[in-house]
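Fold this sequence, please.
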Amino acid sequence: MTMTTKPDTPAAVTTPIQNSLTAGRLPTPAPWIILGAAIAVSAAIFGVMAVAGGSGYNWGGALLVGALLYIPSVWLFSVLVEGRRRAMDRLVTALVTGAFVLAMIPLVSLTITVVTFGLARFDAEFFTNSMRNVTGEGGGIVHAIVGTLLMTGTAALISIPIGLMTSVYLVEYGHGRLARGITFLVDVMTGIPSIVAGLFAYAVFSIFLGPGTRTGIAGAVSLAVLMIPVVVRSSEEMLRLVPNELREAAYALGVPKWLTIVKVVLPTSMAGITTGIMLSIARVIGETAPLLIAAGFTASVNYNMFDGRMQSLPVFVYTQYANQGNPPQAYLDRAWAAALTLILIVMALNLIARLVARFFAPKFGR
């Protein structure tokens, strides 16, 4: 009996699995190297142009062209090494990053310019004196700071309750034509030019107090007209983000609707509401046209909102720049320093809003 043996079969050849997601990858510093090379090429081109034309070197243009060269370059290298999928990801990343940097350039430039020119008069005299009996050098902005804080604070006291209660009505109670009409009017008020709000306040107070009346309360009312739609829209969006499960849980426990709004809905959305209120204050604190019409300007400190004209920081900056005296540099220095002060006040308000949102927001979890 013969036994046949089965011939050995050759071992199966294993082929590596190609995965397009992990096939190839540029080194980590590759995008920076490509960016540096693109800027170097652009700098060389602008250097040749500057030498040929006999003009100064354009650093801004060199950086901009270098950034534009980087976008197709990083896409091309990524296509050759990583494939089209990763190349498209790097292309979109480069475009988004470039848009962000482009948007930051004016902000950084403005900040550097204001700080550079504003520090010339950033001293104790500037913050302790007013412009009363000052025609040349010296003087300060204490009267403008007082007026800005009083009018903005009064506008906040007027607009925040109105805007918050309006948003609560629209979210919790509003249905039908009335709610749609209020929403339409709020949207229209959002686009009102600031000077129209100033003319409105001036006309209202002229009817009751006589033509030509300019007071701090009139300026506060004009700012409140601009603040109310911003408070309404921001608060409305924050209230709509509160989960309905929280409301239903409170109703299931027998809590009335008004108490649910006060104890559940508002505390839950407090962080977002506070941020919206601070945005509305930052939106109106730098307004010039309505205050110039409704509140006017003065060189003295005025603490009475209902009597006499009242100065504000934006109007102070405008008047110092538009009505330059002798020496003109003193007026420009005061204008830059007042602009820097206004920016610092807005920054302080935003920091306060962050702290309020952090400490008063509800704490979830265990």
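The two ends are 81 Å apart (CA to CA). The chain is about 70% helix and 0% strand.
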